[in-house]
């Protein structure tokens, strides 16, 4: 029923052994809530290495024993990773006071109040991107089944380590369920202030997957499903906190910090392909609008086209990777069957040396099966999930383009309403109805203000979108590159293990005759 | 003209058996021709001949047809690979196993092994047909030799019943039981290993697709961020191309060494099974002859006794040859398996080391990328 508490996320799919090489750093047990052990990942490479944090080895994120891992440029190579940071940041009471100081001390881009906005050049935007260092790391671990039967759900431990004063403590954690993550996305998407931002989409709901888990969490496909989801939720949060604006958001803070969250409802929208459906519907609505947008700047049109093309390409890539993963799994099965057949052949041999060699061969093949298993996992977790994430992210990019167009629409509609009000006023003047005239004048003022406001909103959103897309592309190249490096490291390790297997077997083969 | 020469029972092979090579397979429309090269004993050079599968069958039939050689039925005949077929049915493909993969190298190797085994066999090498096959410029007579139904296991169902007939000799009974078990396991092992090699090929192909699909993502543009991503895609495409090549090597190594080895082992077990069956049939014949001789009426008695004596003599010969063959097979088998396992291991080790090197190079290149 309730699976063992406080255990490390199982590696893909059901092997009990931790990944060699990955956990050659501090193999912390996860029983302690605080301390360096939280972020030791014993599973296959799953954590997206965000832009600034590029550890040299695939080790745990914050091993204090390994000062070479620099989560961000603020830290120096000494035992207390946060010492220097604490000296820099204002040390006032945790909570709201540090908001203003935050922008200067951690160099976040300051585009926040529309009224004070000046159109900045592209170079300035890029400069602000470069100062984009942040100081928070999150991990999602310890999936645990809560409850029984069809009402059961899985709770995950969300652990945060940070030195930012906007948070109440430096190291803390909370238990969250899947719908909480969806709820967070819903809240962020709805915010006017975040319009134009590329809000990372959460992983998809899966009725089939969850039903299996509700029934029992122990079979390999359930384990695989839970691990896949855990890793996806982790990447989702990591992308959110990597975004300077989102990190500021109180809902994000609540999500990470609060003991209990109000249960998120209305998460129906995000089932299965629901998310993409939603985006597509919005796109359709935009394209059907009567007033065609007059682009003074072809940048937006060009980019939108690029995003579309890229999404097609990524889908194609994902299809190929999926077939690769399934072939690798097939190889596992075939290798295991072959190993068994060799064992049987070895057992029926009279010649002892031959029998021994064939049994050894069967063992080697068993080890290879394990290797193939891991390789399938690596292919999957690194490439398939990366591609799937970016397909969803591109959907989000399209979404923010649409938001800009809608902002333009609103501005245009306000202008036409204003025009109508003015015409109405003129009519009233002509008809000489002074009592209604006052109201008309008030309405005109109201709408003039709105037109001004909406124009500013539109400009602001345009700038946000540009900035976001730039940031997105930079992150994308970095993300892919770091994942590929992880992949190659894993491949290299596999090959080296393979070499060892063969070297060990060769004398056995030679010794037969 | 060739027919008369072949009627002579024995000759000495004029080539070094271990130098026989099947160097190529040439396809010309429907005809498939194999080039066979062997070194002359006299040291004066080589014989180059071209032969089709029909010629191989001609040779095999002649080997079977040596009825005057005492105990010929006790010989474990080197197995000839099945006829290669284009667009073979699934059943035939399964039978062909490794030899049906469409690569000619393993198939040529299997034919080569067949010829070498015949040349190395003290009885079979003396057959004139072998000399003609290896040395004659003209192809051996293509007319169909009377098909000697030598492989009796493929005969009518009624015959199969005899396979279980209890033996009079403990050595042979043990060998029959053991052979039955081994044949099954060896065949399964060969089949399952084929599955492994085929899946490895599939993975290689999928990697190739991935590399190709990545190339499509590469764009030349001015945008620095786009360029960065394009570079990543281009490099990753190279990586997967390497992975594909590595995987293909792994599959080819599998096929050429252990694959062939397991295949040969299984077919030799089958050949032994055929031989043991022939002997068992002879045993049944002998037991019937004894019964007939016992029960014969005086008129027929001496005739029956003759028959019985002949049967006894033949059976004795067969047992003598069979025993030698079994001992030889069991000895050689160990060496053959050892060789194929060692070769397989060495080749895979080599490929794995090369793979590690290449992945390391790619890794360093990626790390060095801006």
From TrEMBL, chain A:
InterPro entries listed in its UniProt record: AH/BAR_dom_sf, PX_dom, PX_dom_sf, Sorting_nexin_N, Vps5_C
Family matches, as Pfam families: PX, Sorting_nexin, Vps5
Signal peptide coordinates: none
Bias type Polar residues, positions: 40-52
Recorded topology in the membrane: Peripheral membrane protein
The keyword Glycoprotein is annotated on this UniProt entry: no
Gene Ontology BP term (one): early endosome to Golgi transport
GO molecular function (one): phosphatidylinositol binding
PX domain span: 134-263
Location (main, coarse): other
GO cellular component: cytosol; early endosome membrane; lamellipodium
Region of interest (Disordered), ranges: 1-118
Methyltransferase among keywords: no
Alphabetical UniProt keywords: Acetylation, Cell projection, Endosome, Lipid-binding, Membrane, Phosphoprotein, Protein transport, Transport
Protein family per UniProt: Belongs to the sorting nexin family.
Summary of the function given for this chain in its UniProt record: Involved in several stages of intracellular trafficking. Interacts with membranes containing phosphatidylinositol 3-phosphate (PtdIns(3P)) or phosphatidylinositol 3,5-bisphosphate (PtdIns(3,5)P2). Acts in part as component of the retromer membrane-deforming SNX-BAR subcomplex. The SNX-BAR retromer mediates retrograde transport of cargo proteins from endosomes to the trans-Golgi network (TGN) and is involved in endosome-to-plasma membrane transport for cargo protein recycling.
Name by which UniProt lists this protein: Sorting nexin-2
Organism of provenance: Fundulus heteroclitus
């Amino acid at each position: 029923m309730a699976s063992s508490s406080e255990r490390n996320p199982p590696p893909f799919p059901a092997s009990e052994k931790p990944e060699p090489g990955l956990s050659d750093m501090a193999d912390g047990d996860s029983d302690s809530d605080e301390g360096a052990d939280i972020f030791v990942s014993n599973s296959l490479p799953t954590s997206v290495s965000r832009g600034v944090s590029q550890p040299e080895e695939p080790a745990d994120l914050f091993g204090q024993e390994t000062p070479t891992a620099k989560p961000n440029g603020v830290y120096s190579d000494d035992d207390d990773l946060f010492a220097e940071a604490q000296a820099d940041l204002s040390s006032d009471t945790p909570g709201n006071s540090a908001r203003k100081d935050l922008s200067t001390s951690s160099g976040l881009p300051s585009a926040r109040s529309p009224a004070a906005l000046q159109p900045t050049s592209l170079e300035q935007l890029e400069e602000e991107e470069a100062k984009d260092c942040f100081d928070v790391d999150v991990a999602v671990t310890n999936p645990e089944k809560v409850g029984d039967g069809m009402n059961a759900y899985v709770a995950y431990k969300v652990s945060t380590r940070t030195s930012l004063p906007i948070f109440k403590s430096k190291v803390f954690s909370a238990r969250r369920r899947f719908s909480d993550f969806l709820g967070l996305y819903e809240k962020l998407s709805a915010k006017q202030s975040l319009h134009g931002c590329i809000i990372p989409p959460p992983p998809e709901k899966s009725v089939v997957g969850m039903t299996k888990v509700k029934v029992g969490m122990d079979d390999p496909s359930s384990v695989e499903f839970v691990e896949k989801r855990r890793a996806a939720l982790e990447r989702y949060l990591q992308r959110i906190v990597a975004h300077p604006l989102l990190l500021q958001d109180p809902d994000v803070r609540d999500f990470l910090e609060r003991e209990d969250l109000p249960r998120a409802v209305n998460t129906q929208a995000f089932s299965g392909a629901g998310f993409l459906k939603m985006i597509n519907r919005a796109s359709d609505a935009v394209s059907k609008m009567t007033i065609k947008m007059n682009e003074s700047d072809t940048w937006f049109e060009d980019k939108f086209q690029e995003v579309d093309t890229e999404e097609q390409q990524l889908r194609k890539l994902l299809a190929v990777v999926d077939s690769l993963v399934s072939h690798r799994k097939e190889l596992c099965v075939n290798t295991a069957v072959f190993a068994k057949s060799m064992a049987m052949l070895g057992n029926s041999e009279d010649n002892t040396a031959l029998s021994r060699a064939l049994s050894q061969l069967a063992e080697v093949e068993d080890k290879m099966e394990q290797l193939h298993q891991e390789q399938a996992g690596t292919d999957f977790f690194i490439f398939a999930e990366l591609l799937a994430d970016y397909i969803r992210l591109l959907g989000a990019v399209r979404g923010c383009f649409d938001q800009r167009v809608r902002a333009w629409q609103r501005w245009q509609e306000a202008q036409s309403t204003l025009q109508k009000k003015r015409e109405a006023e003129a009519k009233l003047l002509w008809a000489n109805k002074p009592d209604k005239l006052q109201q008309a004048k008030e309405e005109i003022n109201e709408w003039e203000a709105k037109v001004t406001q909406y124009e500013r909103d539109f400009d602001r959103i345009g700038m946000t979108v540009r900035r976001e897309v730039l940031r997105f592309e930079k992150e994308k190249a970095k993300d892919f590159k770091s994942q590929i490096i992880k992949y190659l490291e894993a491949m290299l390790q596999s090959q080296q293990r393979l070499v060892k297997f063969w070297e060990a077997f060769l004398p056995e083969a030679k010794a037969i005759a | 003209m060739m027919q008369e020469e072949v009627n002579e029972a024995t000759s000495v092979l004029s080539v070094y058996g271990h130098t026989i090579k099947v160097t190529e397979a040439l396809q010309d429309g429907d005809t498939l021709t194999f080039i066979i090269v062997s070194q002359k004993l006299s040291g004066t050079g080589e014989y180059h001949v071209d032969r089709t599968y029909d010629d191989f069958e001609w040779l095999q039939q002649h080997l079977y047809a040596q009825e005057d050689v005492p105990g010929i039925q006790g010989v474990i005949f080197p197995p000839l690979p099945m006829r290669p077929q284009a667009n073979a049915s699934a059943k035939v493909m399964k039978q062909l196993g490794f030899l049906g993969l469409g690569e000619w190298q393993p198939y040529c190797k299997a034919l080569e092994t067949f010829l070498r085994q015949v040349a190395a066999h003290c009885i079979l090498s003396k057959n004139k047909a072998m000399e003609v096959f290896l040395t004659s410029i003209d192809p051996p007579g293509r007319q169909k030799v009377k098909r000697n139904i030598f492989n009796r296991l493929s005969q009518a169902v009624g015959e199969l019943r005899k396979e279980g007939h209890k033996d009079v000799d403990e050595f042979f009974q043990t060998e029959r039981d053991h052979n039955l078990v081994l044949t099954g396991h060896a065949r399964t092992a060969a089949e399952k290993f084929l599955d492994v090699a085929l899946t490895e090929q599939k993975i290689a192909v999928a990697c190739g697709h991935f590399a190709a699909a990545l190339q499509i993502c590469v764009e030349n543009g001015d945008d620095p961020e786009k360029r960065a991503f394009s570079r990543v895609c281009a490099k990753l495409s190279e990586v997967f191309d390497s992975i594909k090549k590595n995987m293909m090597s792994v599959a080819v190594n599998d096929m050429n060494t252990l694959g062939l080895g397991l295949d040969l082992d299984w077919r030799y077990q089958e050949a032994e099974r055929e031989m043991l069956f022939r002997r068992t049939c002879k045993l049944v014949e002998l037991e019937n002859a004894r019964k007939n001789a016992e029960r014969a009426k005086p008129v027929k008695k001496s005739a029956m006794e003759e028959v019985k004596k002949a049967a006894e003599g033949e059976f004795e010969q067969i047992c003598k040859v069979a025993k030698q063959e079994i001992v030889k097979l069991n000895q050689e088998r160990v060496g053959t398996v050892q060789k194929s396992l060692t070769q397989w291991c060495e080749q895979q080790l080599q490929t794995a080391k090369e793979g590690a090197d290449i992945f390391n190079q790619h890794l360093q290149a990626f790390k060095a990328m801006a």
